[in-house]
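We modelled the chain as a single entity of 100 amino acids. Its sequence is:
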Amino acid sequence: MGVSREFPESSLKKSEICLDVKKKRLSEKYGVEMTRDTEEKVNVMCNLSEVVLEKGKGIGELTGKVVARFEDGLPIEEIANKSNVSVEVVKEILREKGMI
């Protein structure tokens, strides 16, 4: 975009803010010229942020389920089967949580 200003983290990532509001905020508040190219880039950034958010939620849910099942005493193989992931994925989650 050619602008070296720092934007507050909340300026672009709130999914409830529509694209037009984001473009207006970038233009008026930060002086970003809204060319067709810039608008396309803002649109791509918004779409990517939604994908990242959804993926993060999925990872968090999986981690929570794996940890809860492990704490309930289920064997790793059964956790993997119930979670539809490999035994290695379960072990990696449990290692990251310091549980094995």
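As a brief sanity check on the tokenised model: Helices lie at 19-30, 36-71, 76-83, 87-96. The chain is about 65% helix and 0% strand.
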